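Board work, copied verbatim: cysteine desulfurase
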Amino acid sequence: MDKIYLDNAATTPLDEAVISEMIAAMRSFGNPSSTHSFGQDAKILIENVRRNIAGYLNVSPSEIVFTSCGTESNNMIIKSCVYHLGVERIITSPLEHKCVAETIMEMKSRNGVEVIFLRPDKNGDLNLNELETALKASGKKTLVSLMHANNEIGNILDIKKAALICKENGALYHSDTVQSMAHYPLDFSEIPVDFASCSAHKFHGPKGSGFAFIRKSSGLKSLITGGPQERSLRAGTENVAGIVGLGKAMDICIHNMERYSSHIQQVKEYAVNKISAAVPGIKFNGRSAEKESLYTVLSLLLPFNDPLIGLKLDMKGIAVSQGSACSSGASKPSMVMMMILDDEEMKKTTPLRISFSHLTTIQEIDSLTAALKEIAENQAIEKINV
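↓ predict structure ↓
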């Protein structure tokens, strides 16, 4: 049975060119902190990647700090803002990734940080006028943490507008850009975010490699101490091969962005039309079916309740997700779904996320559609028999 992978928002297949670059990098075995030639060979590999990433984002290389993933980057940024920068209030939303949401709530319980939530509407959109109002309501030092592109429903926030509002009101702004980095052009000289995060495995790079963008004027300090690595912002010997893999994957995606995005947009539009015709009553969550959404994500709302839908599709060789990867084992709907669906909808429907890459084909969408149609028809038959 040929398998079909449609869970690219969780992770993407490694590009073969990335694997080759990583294998070559593994031969530079020296410790990048060593001053001899073996160490400096490894150090050069890291700094070349740092310089290239900084060029893509139009920032200083010293503002790129390599980490293990977006989760670590988000934790480091949020916690250091509280511990070291005196942040007493955080403005965020229920749409954030679990690693952001749980870290913020930890800062509330352990450090007494005030937390304000901007509530999304039924489409999953945030009103940035409410952000401005909230920022003017108190003189406390504030961090705003709002993601660029939602990993479940695909809604995109105007991060430039959000960043400008924060700047005008003296607040720090952090954006989780894990789903949008290397998929959209981001110029941080024009978008005045203070902090952003990245995970390589979201754009065909290796797991366990990511980076944090930390504006040098922010004054952020390290949480992991014990060495001068990463400008003393993240102690510990660097993952040289992982960083090289991240850099290669980003190079490939940046240089092929127009071609990749055009292909994925076409596949996504085809999926919307094909699945809508095949499964009567199907809806799409958030803005995911619209053109101005995260083009790699399509969030479906099937017109029947079937908690085993993911398993049924997997048995047919089709990999999808019933939510974000971090919540795949959860027994209840994600916070995002609870924000946009009412209790009755959640009882009678089934959310399903399919996510694409430049490797996704029209034929794969046809196979998914046929499988969903069969499952929907079986559900209808079972309902009649009951």
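DSSP finds 13 helices and twelve strands in the chain.
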